[in-house]
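ARCHIVE CARD
Drawer: 12
Card no.: 0347
Subject: one protein chain, sequence and derived structure
Cross-reference: see card 0346
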Amino acid sequence: MSRVYLVRHGQAAFGTDDYDRLTETGIAQCRQLARHWRAIGRRADLVYSGTLRRQRESADAFVKAAAEDSGIALPVKELPGIEEYDHLSLLAAHQGATGVPAAIEDRRAFHRSLSGALRAWAAGELPEVEPFPIFRDRCAAALSTLMRETGRGRNAVVFGSAGSLAAAMQPALGLADWDLLRLKLTFFNSGVSSLLFDGETVTIESLNTVSHLEQPAFTQLITHR
């Protein structure tokens, strides 16, 4: 059996002009993941990242912290197809379809606006953006590529985004589109899901865990956005 860990990127710069970068909290989350794994003896044989900056910065923070003892950092391989949907285009399309302005002034208002846009997207009501089935299929194809490259008996880690990782897992989760998107809204920054695979079957082992942040010294690092 082989295993792939799907890790949501660390906290990105929500509410700024450049969302696609990590905050200091986001970097600390990914560093702590590596240190926790090192402490419990969990190994990573391969590390992948999507092409977005926040995904790559998360992978880089992870491999650098993982190499603090050995001094040898694993290379990060780019995995096209695991990129997130464009949330700004999604919100704009939903606003155009409903006439309701997207609220982005705070996290709760943003959550409500994004939830409405995601529901419409899942229902196929936003033709101006990448259709959800195409998004889902490219994410699942990227995961299939990763699993083929991983082979047998190895552990791979991929840093993606909440929506793209959930979409990649949709066949194994067996959820309808809107149920999947509702689930992805609960994903933590640096949250970890794991899959077991043997070349024929894929099994969900864990979903959206943050055990690396649950010690008292690190609970302040637990975030959703």
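Annotation on reverse: The helical segments are 24-40, 53-66, 87-98, 107-122, 132-150, 162-173, 177-184. The chain has a mean pLDDT of 93.
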